Amino acid sequence: MQKSTILVIEDDADTLEIIAAALTEAGYEVSAGKDITMLYGIEKQPPGLLLVDNWLSGDKTGHDICYQLKQNPATAGIPVILISGTRNLEATAARCGANGFICKPFDMSELLNMVAKTYWSKMVGKTLV
């Protein structure tokens, strides 16, 4: 089974670097960036998973991005995990159709466990509960 890329969008450079390094060290192929330009071409080359900060610089939020992806049949199957220090992140994730959420500050093992559960469920075609 060929692995797909995990796309990480996080506007805090330090957090982005830490997440990308941890995922790479765990054996994932990672594409990472600080803004929504990372989404260009997502329909043609969908990632295996999108990790997105809920509060990005600019006019789009992570939950806006997630909602739009989930409404588009070409991208609806891309698993999305929201990351944020926002209160009520669980409710926000549910409203936009995210497959999961991780609250900041997070433990790296928590992040890796959520990624593994979501990513590999998608890769083997199982629905998350």
From TrEMBL:
The question of whether Phosphoprotein is a record keyword is answered with yes
What organism does this protein naturally occur in?
Answer: Mucilaginibacter psychrotolerans
Which part of the chain is the Response regulatory domain? 5-119
Q: Name one Pfam family in it.
A: Response_reg
Protein known as: Response regulator
Q: Which residues carry this modification: 4-aspartylphosphate?
A: 53
GO annotation, biological process = phosphorelay signal transduction system
Kindly indicate whether the keyword Phosphoprotein belongs to this entry.
yes
UniProt keyword list: Phosphoprotein
InterPro entries (alphabetical): Bact_response_regulator, CheY-like_superfamily, Sig_transdc_resp-reg_receiver
Q: Which PANTHER family match?
A: RESPONSE REGULATORY DOMAIN-CONTAINING PROTEIN, STRESS RESPONSE REGULATOR PROTEIN 1
